[in-house]
Amino acid sequence: MTVQRYGKTVATQLQSKGLTVNECCQSLFVAIINVVVTLTASLPQYNAWQLGVAVPSLSATRHLLTSKGVWKLSLTASYQKGNGDPYTDLTFADPSDRQTAPATTPAWLWREYQYIVAPQYTIGGSVAYAFIFPHTRLKTHVRLAATHRKANQTYEYNIGNDCTSLALAVGCTF
Asked: Digits of tens for pLDDT over the chain (174 positions)?
């Protein structure tokens, strides 16, 4: 069973109870989280994390109205710093004498921990254009965004300390 099929089933059930679309979307999000938690909880082992992350950010947006559409220019900047204890491998039930202990991946978990708690900053910008598609009434939008994230320290097993991403989105609003 896929999450998408499960989500449609939940949405249908909620709508049959007279809930609005917005309430259904919120409940659908909770249902998907519950599916993920249920699938994770069915495994015999798990990792306990005690982490906190603070992300203060600033953003500025400017809308420019033209005769054919609207331009949206955005700039963002943020700083992230985490703290907490690394993972602890735990099991729901101890293996018997004839069973082997579950396998762990400490190197990957340690890398994830280092990434989450590393002090890092992000800068980014985007340009978007919204317009009515010619000869139709279809609301169309195009968005180009770029972000650059840089960690203030490099760890032994992580390759590099920065990441740049570009995104292009084209869509329509129904």
From this structure: 333 444 444 445 545 555 544 444 444 444 444 444 444 444 566 777 788 889 999 999 999 999 999 999 999 999 999 888 887 777 777 777 787 766 777 777 787 788 788 899 999 999 999 999 888 889 999 999 999 999 887 766 667 788 899 999 999 887
Taking Cα atoms as reference points, which of 70, 66, 108 lies closest to residue 87?
Answer: 108
Beta strand pairing call for 69-91 and 57-65: antiparallel
Report field, pTM of the whole predicted structure over 0.85 = no
Q: 35 in helix, strand or coil?
A: helix
Nearest CA-CA partner of 109 in 80, 90, 88? 88
Q: Are 80 and 119 in contact (CB under 8 A)?
A: yes
